[in-house]
């Protein structure tokens, strides 16, 4: 029992929180003077860069891609308190007076129950040009299937995914947010993700999908580039 407890502690210590926060800029911000807009952007960027010393942060622009959100911050840490403090500091900026958060998702990394050697995917390498993010929930019928059946279905699903140059991050949200999972796919070209999703439609696993929207196509930027894209 002692050895088991040590293994569980080590495994749990490798888990991390993944937070996807989407921001929409109010049109009132665009009416500010150029100097005022620059000062609000600089202050916001400084907060992001300061917290990059404590947790992994990737920044993305959705300007011109979606109409209901302008940029997204993907933060990863083993301490949820850091996510909380980052949110507090963002709300303390002048930019916060001009932004809403239309979407906000929380998930946690953990080993897959369907692949014995699956690692805990907690790294955000920051090399891909795009990330495609969406909440995901399965039908309750899925969980009534025998484990062996679910393993077989998911391995078929995985074989399809391996055909494409796309890296998946699966986050688990049971009990800590409304959805069951958060999925983030890293790719350098939206073509690869579009073809992957279309191909996955023919898998048996797709028949057990209850929710997989909204889907966000996010273009990677550094913090300054993300803010400069706003205008």
Description:
The chain is of the alpha+beta class and 231 residues long. The chain contains eight helices and nine strands.
Unreliable parts: 1-10
User: Do you know the CATH architecture of the largest domain?
Assistant: 2-Layer Sandwich
Structural class, by secondary structure, is: alpha+beta
Strand coverage percent: 25-35%
What is the CATH homology-level superfamily of the largest domain? Apc35880, domain 1
Oligomer: single chain
What is the terminal separation in angstroms?
A: 59 Å
Work out the helicity level. Answer: 25-40%
Q: Kindly identify the CATH topology of the largest domain.
A: Alpha-Beta Plaits
Number of helices: 8
Per DSSP E runs of 2 or more residues, the count of β-strands stands at 9
Q: How would a textbook summarize the main sheet?
A: 9 strands, antiparallel
The shape is: elongated
Q: Element order, helices and strands?
A: HEHHEEHEEHHEEHEEH
Give me the secondary-structure topology.
Layout: H1 2-13, E1 17-25, H2 27-30, H3 34-51, E2 56-61, E3 71-77, H4 80-91, E4 99-108, E5 130-138, H5 140-144, H6 147-161, E6 167-172, E7 181-187, H7 190-200, E8 209-211, E9 216-221, H8 223-228
Antiparallel strand pairs: 1-3, 1-4, 2-3, 2-9, 5-7, 5-8, 5-9, 6-7
Helix pairs in contact: 3-4
Task: Spell out the key features of this protein.
alpha+beta, disordered N terminus, Alpha-Beta Plaits, single chain, elongated, 2 domains, nine-stranded antiparallel beta sheet, 231 residues, 9 strands
